[in-house]
Amino acid sequence: MASSSVAIKAAETRKEAEDYLELRLRGSETDSLVEPSIPIIDIGDTFESSLPDKQKAAEEIRRACITSGFFIITSHGISTKARGDILDQAKSLFTKTPREQKQLIHIKHSLYGYGWEPSDATTIAGDVETKEAFNWSYEDDLDVSGGDSGYVQLDGSSVSNVNQWPDEPLLPGFYGGIKDYYGQALGLARHLCKLFALSLRLPEDYFDSMTTHPSGNSRLMYYPPAEPVAESKDGVGLGAHSDYQCFTILLCSSTPGLEILSPSGRWIAAPVVQDGLVINIGDMMMRWTNGLFKSTVHRVVNRTGEERYSVPLFFGVNNDHIVEGET
Ligand SMILES: O=C(O)CCC(=O)C(=O)O
Ligand SMILES: [Fe+2]
Questions:
Q1: Distance between CA 248 and CA 259 in Å, rounded?
Q2: What is the pTM of this model?
Q3: Ligand closest to the CA atom of residue 220
Q4: How far apart are CA 137 and CA 115, in angstroms?
Q5: Which ligand is closest in space to the CA of residue 252?
Q6: Which residue of 29, 68, 178, 220 has the lowest C-beta tally within 10 Å?
Q7: Which residues pair with 322 in a beta bridge?
Q8: Span from the CA of 217 to the centroid of ligand 1 (angstroms)
């Protein structure tokens, strides 16, 4: 494609994304097209507490979900060590491991796209994204609950051992680091399900039986430092998209870069909150709540001279659970 037609296509795609989000943000409980905010919600009181304390946090979550679809949680219980270790492992994989070694676990060797994903694996309207990733799927061994041996892939098949891990001598502690963080994140996701249930005026155990072998694809992400202005190709780290599952738990390193699209078409930078985790609603939850909770378009642009790392967990109910409306 000629570069002018690529540019036209890119502008069209951006316009479509903006129109789409504007349409979606006009929910029944959204009072106006106000600029969305990303509130910080302390959930520390919700772990041991009485129902009224949980309901208080659930109401804050509800307000965030019907407006921006994004919020940041603090006092979430995932240890500082687990968060630090997994970000360190991401750094080792992306910046210290020879490309030939990463090629051995390239996503092309995986039926489901698990393993190392080089930056040229995906494009947005013809432009290569700068990000590099490492993808994996839920497996019982990674689940602190031990799972229930019922996990099926998104296509319904029950093939196991689909993940591709780097050799232990090559990246010592890599699997352990993932398991520690991911296991805790799954526990947090199940706790958040209770708060989401309350926020939807449902019994707090509403999602429990549907999340025994949940959909839990996750990835390590690496966004290289921005190029000096003179060489800048206006690189987008991760193109505009919405997440497809019920909700995402996102751990980020301290380098900013996440931006969400406002109804007026402006990109709003998500704040970096020390020790916080970003939570955002995905398309599945938006559909399930008839559009009440918003799955908002977002992207990543690393404009800094620092590397950026992140770990999203896309959490959803068991892949073999039929999602349907209440009658
Ligand atoms: O890296 C980030 O901050 C966001 C990643 C993201 O949006 C995604 O992987 O879906
Ligand atoms: Fe995303």
A1: 15
A2: 0.90
A3: 1
A4: 10
A5: 1
A6: 29
A7: none
A8: 13
Mean pLDDT of 129-151: 95
For ligand 2, a single-atom ion, which residues have Cβ within 5 Å? 243
Q: Are 118 and 192 in contact (CB under 8 A)?
A: no
Ligand 1 atom at shortest distance from the alpha carbon of 221: 1
Query: Which residue, 47, 46, 68, is CA-closest to 57?
Result: 46
Distances (CA, A) of 49 to 43, 55, 102, 140: 10, 10, 45, 29
Q: Let me know: does 142 contact 178? Beta carbons within 8 Å.
A: yes
Q: Is the pLDDT of residue 115 over 80?
A: yes
Burial class (CB in 10 A: 0-12, 13-18, 19+), 93: buried
Nearest protein Cα to ligand 1, atom 5: 312
Distance, in Å, from the CA atom of 19 to the CA atom of 15, rounded to the nearest integer, reads 6
Residue 178 Cα to ligand 1 middle (Å): 17
Domains annotated on the chain, with CATH: 34-318 (2.60.120.330)
* ipTM > 0.95 (yes/no): yes
